[in-house]
Design brief:
mainly alpha; 6 helices; HK97-gp10_tail
Length: 131
């Protein structure tokens, strides 16, 4: 999840702003999640490629927050994405290939980069609207 300092205060301020600015902020959250997803896909363990292909973004427009979700199921319904990320990583399991991480979502989450992306997107979108 992308988290911001003084989140509640930021949300109150955003709710006072024009609709275009709210849309720009949501677009910024989406852009930040896309960047995070691309980074996570680079370090997700690879066996058949399902882990990196099953990372999805989820945005709550009203709360202006987003997260990445990684679920990859075997033919028997076992969620091995969850198991590797949350259980295997804690048990000391290691990825088969160098440069990969069992905590692909956690190690690639960069709140500072995400905030910069949100801010940059807001500025770009609002300039296009004449602000």
């Amino acid at each position: 999840m992308i988290e911001f300092i003084n989140y509640a205060e930021s949300i109150r301020e955003l709710q006072k702003l024009p609709h275009d600015l709210k849309n720009a902020a949501v677009d910024g959250v989406h852009a930040a999640l896309q960047e995070w997803m691309m980074e996570a896909q680079k370090v997700a363990p690879v066996d058949e490629g399902n882990l990196k292909n099953e990372i999805e973004t989820e945005i709550n427009r009203s709360l202006m927050e987003g997260s990445l979700i990684s679920n990859a199921y075997s033919s028997t319904g076992f969620n091995y994405a969850y198991y590797l990320h949350e259980v295997g990583s804690q048990k000391g399991y290691k990825p088969k290939k160098a440069g990969k991480s069992l905590e692909w979502l956690k190690v690639t989450n960069d709140p500072d980069r995400s905030l910069e992306t949100v801010e940059r997107t807001i500025v770009q979108k609002m300039r296009g609207k004449g602000w």
